Every structure is written in structure tokens, then in C-alpha cells.
Protein: Glutamate-1-semialdehyde 2,1-aminomutase
Organism: Pedococcus bigeumensis
Amino acid sequence: MTAYPFDAPASQALLERALAVTPGGVNSPVRAFRAVGGTPRFMVSGHGPYLTDADGREYVDLVCSWGPMILGHGHPAVQQAVAAAAAKGFSFGTPSENEVALGEEIVRRVAPVEQVRLVSSGTEATMSAIRLARGYTGRSIVVKFAGCYHGHVDSLLAQAGSGVATFALPDSAGVPKEMAAETIVLPFNDLDAVEAAFAERGSEIAALITEASPGNMGVVPPAPGFTEGLRRITAAHGALLISDEVMTGFRCSEAGWFGLEAGEQGYAAGAPDLFTFGKVMGGGFPAAAFGGRADVMALLAPVGPVYQAGTLSGNPVATAAGLATLQQCTPDLYARLGEVADALTAGLDEHLSAAGVPHVVQRAGSMFSVFFRDGQVRDYDEARAQHVPAFAAFFHSMLSQGVYLPPSAFESWFVSGAHDDVAVDRVLAAIPAAASAAAE
Ligand code: PLP
């Protein structure tokens, strides 16, 4: 393993304690530095655009907790909402007003969503949406795309992105063969492959699930017309279309990727039937949701026969955090996120070009990532055909200069409304040396 000039003794000591009680020392694999080497930083606090680690070093944070922290860390309005909610109690196990208000906010923002059910993680949201689609159609097969990650649901782990991509696992051990046989995996952005799969097995397919705009193999937006094609093909075969907006929801626009792609006109071919949300809508707390057409949602217990439940679903503190966060997600915020992404992507492009490093920067709203290869990336095979060691060198140079990037070449980078010009300039100042490191 390469020795990195910048050591982190307090993080290393915590890692050693963690390794004794937790596999790999982390509670979610993408947090480990396995793909880039070195010691994962144990963070002790976050303020605005910055994180501080156990050694007292400060970083400009371009991970933002993998998406949720769209306002930056410790936003005062969210802190107040959380404190006020917690002062009234932590969990009631009954319905409460905050969850109604959060549901109303989601329905108001995303036009095709008529009803929602709150859950505690994106994984639960996609798992429940799949069960609902199977219950609604009476069919069992699910179609997904290689490189898309929908949480660690058994049937959705095949050729998944995010940590599964980072660690180059084809699938996960522990998923029964029978379960994997219920999943068809296709290349993203390839409508011919979708047509062919539905021509062959359309009457058995319950749903096609896609990341609205994938961010878990790096950022790979759908080609123009791709989402509409998915809508057309699924509708023609009586299968549901599930748009996974756990990452893009309320991040790419006030109405997520749907708001950006469908714009004022909506989709000519019709909206997706079901959506899944998470990350931003919980404001850093465990809150997620799935929702969509009222006639489909009506199949959920206690109204219908599809069972789904959760002790902490709609938790009053988490929903207060989510609601306070969404209330700050205004057009001004999205304009600022766009400016920050403009500045950073331009700086990346300029300095990687100057250093002669093959690269392409791809973007979806304010989400972006760099692929260390030439040419546009349209699917998972193309995403994998990049020079991962160049990413690792770039990552460690940025880290040593106080910029925290996702420790994987297959992840989106995230910015927040707290990334002011000082923070942006700190990132821009670090890029030239990192570009040189990537060139070596
Ligand atoms: N769907 C997408 C698109 C995601 O990016 C993620 C997490 O990164 C999930 C689902 C799973 O969400 P969670 O990690 O909250 O279970």
C-alpha cells in the first residue's frame, strides 16, 4: 500500500478500536478507504461546508454525507427544528403532524406523486416500492440497470453501483440464486436492450427501476429521450416504472430530477408510476419515502394487501429535520448550488487538461463527478473503463490539502448552499497539485 505523506494518528487509533468491533471498522462500506488506500478520517464535527476530523484538521466537504446535507452542516433552521421536536419527545409510535406536513411537502413538489409512505432509509423505500409493484401487477420480475444502486435490497444488488462498484463485486454473496433470477440487468442508456428484454419477458415483468439520473457509477445522466422510452416500453407491457430519486430528489431541483427533466411540460409519454426518495428529505436524519399513483399506493396496508411497516417510520425528530431542510430548498438555493458546481467543474476541467490527464467531467443538476478517461460515459462498462489509480492519486492530494472527496471513483460529488466563495476557492486552489499527482 502506498504510504501517504499526511498521516492521521487520531483517526488511525479510532480505526483500530473500530476494527475490533466492526467488520472493516466502518458501518457502511463506502466510508472505508479500501479503494484509495490510507486511513479513513473519523470526523468529529461539521459546520457549514467544513468537516473537522479527530486530528483537528478541517476539510471542505464535497461528500455532504453522500447527499443529504444540501444546506451544509448544522444549518441553524434545522438545528432549531430538531431541538424543538426533540423537546416534545423522540418517538410516539402513533401518527403525528410532522409526518403529515412532510408528506404534503413531497406531494406538493413532485406533481405525479399523489400519495407517499414514509420509511427510514432509501433501501426500505426501494424494497417497499418493488414489493408494491409486484403486488399491483401480480408479476415478479424486476428490471434494473448495471451501475445503478438502489440500496442493499437482495433483488437489486446485481451489478449495482456505489460500494458494489467500488469493491468490484459482480453481486453480493448471500443473495439466493432464485432471488437473483427474478432480476434482469441491462446496460443503462440502451433502449434497444430494454425493448428486447420486454419483447421476450414483458408479461412477467412487474417493474423497471432506474436511478432517475444515476450517480452511483459516477454521474451518468440519461440520454435525451431515454426516460421517455422507458415510460413508453413499460406502459406498453403493463409494468410499472419506478424512478429512484433517493439521490437526485430535491437535490437536482425543487422537484428533483423529475423537475429538471420533465420541466414545465411533464413527460410526453407520461410520468413514472412510483418514486423513491431519501437523503435530502431527511436533512441528515433517517427519513425516506416512496410514493406515486394513488391507485397503486392504495394497495398498501392497512388499506390494501401489500404489507409494509416501520417502528420509527415518520419519526417526529427526523421529519422535523426533513421539513425544515425542504423549507430552505428554494430557487435561490438551487441557483447557488449551480454556481458552485459551475466553478468547480470548470476548475477541474481546466487543470486536468493543463496537466494532460485524460478525463471527462459529467453533471446532473449540481451533482457531478470526474471519470479519469477520455470520452463521454453513458453506462457502467464505460464508467469502469477509467484509470482508477489516477483517481486515488487525485483523491489523496486533495485530502492532504484539506478537501474531502468521496473515497471512490464511482460516486457523485455533492455541494451545499453553505459552500461560499471561501470554500470554493479553497477547493480550486487544491486542484492544480492534485491534477499533477493524477498525471504521474
Ligand atoms: N437509491 C439510491 C439512488 C441511492 O443513491 C441510495 C444510497 O446511496 C439508496 C437508494 C439507498 O439509500 P440508503 O443508503 O438510505 O438505504
The chain has two domains: 9-70+331-439, 76-328.
